[in-house]
Amino acid sequence: MPMALQKIGGWVNRETVDAYENYARTCFRLFGGRVKKWFTHNEPIVPVEGGYLYDFHYPNKVDFKEAVQVGFHTMLSSARAIQAYREMKQDGKIGIILNLTPSYPRNSHPADVKAGEIADAFFNRSFLDPSAKGEFPKELVDILKNEGFMPDYTSEDLDIIKKNTVDLLGVNYYQPRRVKAKEHLPNPDAPFLPDRYFDPYVMPGRKMNPHRGWEIYEKGVYDILINLKENYGNIECFISENGMGVEGEERFRDEQGIIQDDYRIEFIKEHLKWIHRVIQEGSNVKGYHLWTFMDNWSWTNAYKNRYGFVSVNLEKDGERTVKKSGKWFKKVAEQSGF
Q1: Of 2, 82, 71, which is closest to residue 40 (Cα–Cα)?
Q2: Considering the domain boundaries, does residue 86 fall inside one?
Q3: Cα(180)–Cα(214) distance, rounded to whole angstroms?
Q4: How high does pLDDT run on average in the chain?
Q5: Inside any domain, residue 216
Q6: What is the dihedral of CA 61, 64, 66, 72, to 10 degrees?
Q7: Which family is annotated (predicted)?
Q8: Which residues participate in catalysis according to the annotation?
Q9: Same domain as 129, residue 12
Q10: Could you tell me the pTM of the whole model?
């Protein structure tokens, strides 16, 4: 977000939507002849969660009303960019990249199932439904109305969103979200958050990435893609991000200087097996991209967690070395399988 726009509220301010559309039109005009696949946003829910709900991202607010407005304006900006792209007739495809986190209830008890549905509406369908279907989920809209948090909007805005759905979808998947029904009444004096409708659930025996603290659930990628097939018109899609972050990965470097990351190979293998299965079942998923090519700098953790096929050795002026997983994946790509 340019600071000039952040100073007037960023995505809270409708002027940012206008500025974004102008920016998109400029990009299409300059590069549309060569670039034939465009994506309006990557993980648009992250600024909502981090910046306006859970205080882990600039501007570090906890304000549900502003969070809703930010989400709506971001979605509107995406639809207006799509509308502009089609008006300019550049003979390509345009979509959005969403980090989809399947919301699994603790069990089949109706209260737990309801908690899972609400979590899904907040964290997945809030952007997925308007992007692919042109409308916001009724469950979410009902909550916003009942709680008094509806955004400012016009009927024209809704019409633009309805008529400008995406051509293709990027899916970022790392871990599931597990929830259960609320076990205690929420504090009435606490700021309103989605968690007022569910509690996190820690599933016994879950498989974990011990180097990152995230659950590993490979079948989640299958569940996402089946959902897109059955409920979203089998939209053309691809896995745009999937990966395993490891803190302190230098300890796995051998005498030849190669990171022996068999854990990452196993992680990728198990996800690819589920993707292969869902392709056989008719999913329109077109590809798989690992996060990431080489160890990268994070906004929140710098180089703490390493994700790459190529290591970046900060003790040796950023020296690049292909990890064992990178050499393995090269063979997988060449053979179209393993």
Answers
A1: 82
A2: yes
A3: 18
A4: 97
A5: no
A6: 130
A7: Belongs to the glycosyl hydrolase 1 family.
A8: 241
A9: yes
A10: 0.95
